[in-house]
Amino acid sequence: MKKQILDCSSVFTFVVKKYPCKKEEISEQIKNFYPFSVKGKSIVVRGIKKRKETVFFIFKKTSFDTEWVSFVLFILNRYKEGNYGLKKDSVWEVVSISKDGPVSLDITDREPDNCKKVFLASEILDCSTKEDCIHLHSDKSRLKKRALRVLFMAVMIPVLLAGVKTAVKEKKEKLLDSIKLEKQKKEKEEERISRLKEVQKLEEEYLKLCENRTPSVYEILQHIYGLCSKGDGIKNLSIEKNYFSFEAGTENGVELLKKIERDSFFLTGRINRIQKNGNREEVSLSGEVKKIRTEIIRISDKAPESVINEKMEHYRKKISEIEEQKSFKEKQVLSVFMESVKKELRKNNCKEEYFIESTDDSRAVVEVLFRGPPEKVFSVVKKMGQQDRELIKVLKINSFENSGEIQCTLVFDTGIMTKREMENKPSEAEFTPKEISKAFYCRKETVKRPVQQQKKTVLYEQKKLDYLGSAKNGNKKRIFVSDRENGLVFELLEEKTDSGKGHFYFREDGGLIAVLKNKEFEVNW
User: Contact at 8 Å (CB) between 368 and 377?
Assistant: First the structure.
């Protein structure tokens, strides 16, 4: 670009075709265009946004004229090549714009005649915009800007420090809140896992309480009846817990076994003996029914709190019900229970033959033998089982042809504690030996009973005895059999003793044999 000196004693102007011009580029541009030293000079830089050009003005410090700068920029922003005049007081200033873009200046005291347009100073001030006064880089402006920056920093540094302090404090509080929240979350999760383990513990406790549950005796009785066809007759039957055995007369004993195998209620079934009797078969079967399976739906380790609470409440309620029932049974009175059994027997026209009490783990076990019409006997069994499905521990049935009655043995696991604190006060009655002796009787004639001896003699002439029931004598088992014709009852031990008492044993085919005075008798059971 061509340099032009216009009144070099006062001002030097040049235009660079680059906008904007960075500060670090100003000194380089001045060296390229200004032929003199800038020492003691004022430098003004303006940008022409529309033309994308940067204008440099170099003044003597004594002749610095911002209005003249604004006038030149005003012309450059709006007009192309030509001469343009400005009247200020009595002086005329003329700006010339050449094709290459340099700016030249002429000052005269008369009105120029070669100007495309002449402006008054007031018109320039009224029509100028911010675009006519931008990118000021004079010494004064730099000092001013530095002062403003120092002032700005003086104001902003405390603000920034306060802001940083506040930000640090907020960050610290957020971090503490985050740590606290994480701790609470961890504690909540640990509590959830702890409650989940408690649920699993309650599940195991509930399963343990229910692990030995078996179907009620009456349920087993119904399924055994369902095996029989028309014309079949059950002679005797025994049910203990989930085990059963029975003897029956049928046309086809194997068919009974098939029915057991097909019924999912039964776990096992086997035929002990099949004996031909004319056109029919005498069959002995035994087996086992399935125990009641306690269903447990286990919850996931990721189960929500609501599910865990629901399961916990469910198992606590179930366990509480079982424990309350057990506690209730333990506190009952044995005499009241036995009286209720007698009442039920009388209600159904059944005649009891004996009651035997024994103890199992400090709980009273009661065995009762009675007889009556079959329908009434089974009504008693059903009624007693409805009160408590686990009450009847053993059921034995013996039927006698042409008698119209069956004999039934029930063993009740009452759950009543035999050792307990008595609430009633002891009796304070006093009696003399004579009064007490009235409660006892002994007759000399009872020592010898010729008639009774004769009945015993008759006993050994019959072929079969009737089974009444069983009990334990220490570690030895004992049974009771009767001679119905002569009204005699015998107690037999399982093993032979030197006391002369009778004993019994089982044949390989399952038959029961009683031995009295070294003579063997078959027992209906």
Answer: no
